Amino acid sequence: MTGRRTFSYVLVDVFAERALEGNQLAVFMDGRGLSESEMQAIAREMNLSETTFILPSENQDKGIRVRIFTVSEELPFAGHPTLGTAYCIHSETRSDQVMLNLNVGSVPVSFTPSGTRSFGEMRQRDPEFGETYSREELAQAIGLQTDDVAGDVPVQVVSTGMPFAIVPIRSLEVIRRMKISWTSIAQFIERRQAKFLYFVSRETVEAGSTLHARMIFYGGEDPATGSAAGCCTAWAVKHGVLATEQRGIIEQGFEISRPSRIHIRGSKQNDAVNNIRVGGYCVEVARGEFYLPK
């Protein structure tokens, strides 16, 4: 058909070991010719947690240019879009090392064979540790009891590209029954360093997991939050929840029937935490074409 532009996209489930699990992502393989407003409008049309746009160019000194959009805004960094986009590039090029040039900077993603699949792992920026919040203030603001928040590790803001406040919850039973609105979270984080809250419990559903997590944002509950997982990894290594270079798994999305498994590890030397890595599997589930007028 004449008079229209065609853009191909891939739909992948990220941090998933089988189709229809994990966090969905639409990857537009060549977004050249799209304006920023068109990218935002397409992300709203896709209505997923995030949609990414690859912008190929001859100059790739900083990596392959990628832009990430939620239904409401462009993000400087997000974990599952980074891994899922790199997976799509890896699937086409078979390169074991994919460097993405995001708004936050260059993020490398490495892939290793695992049977018929590939395991991808991204190295996130070194963490920046920010302010801490009192259990009492946080609980009262978002509708929890003070004792629902664990007291032996802090509620603390950490950023490896996007700032999350890591909120330790005392038990699996508490974190699974939580009913917290985005409105109450948004009111609490207004004028604070955190952009979102990431709730974690050291009790888990699966025996092989290290932490059970939930993340509520303006799009609802997120099945898997790779950017938060990096922040959580740094927090866990700093405060002794995870040993240096110990491999762990964050399980997320179980409450919304989108189980996700996020593989994590990080390093600590003296008091310095770095080398934060977040990984997992991806599954391609669909391909399609998007039409726009010329």
What report would you give on this structure?
With 294 residues, the protein is an alpha+beta fold. It has a 17-stranded mixed β-sheet that branches. Strands 14-15 form a two-stranded antiparallel sheet. Helix 2 packs across helix 6. 21% of the residues lie in helices and 41% in strands. The protein contains 6 helices and 19 strands. It folds into 2 domains: 134 residues, Diaminopimelate Epimerase, Chain A, domain 1 (Roll), CATH 3.10.310; 146 residues, Diaminopimelate Epimerase, Chain A, domain 1 (Roll), CATH 3.10.310.10. The termini are close together.
Q: Sketch the major β-sheet.
A: 17 strands, mixed
The Cα radius of gyration reads 19 Å
What are the segments in which pLDDT stays under 50 over at least 5 consecutive residues? none
Tell me the helix content: 10-25%
CATH superfamily of the largest domain: Diaminopimelate Epimerase, Chain A, domain 1
Count of extended strands: 19
**Count of all domains:** 2
Q: What's the CATH architecture of the largest domain?
A: Roll
Structural class: alpha+beta
The span between the termini is: 12 Å
Task: Based on the model shown, name its key terms.
two-stranded antiparallel ribbon, Diaminopimelate Epimerase, Chain A, domain 1, 294 residues, 17-stranded mixed sheet, 21% helix, alpha+beta
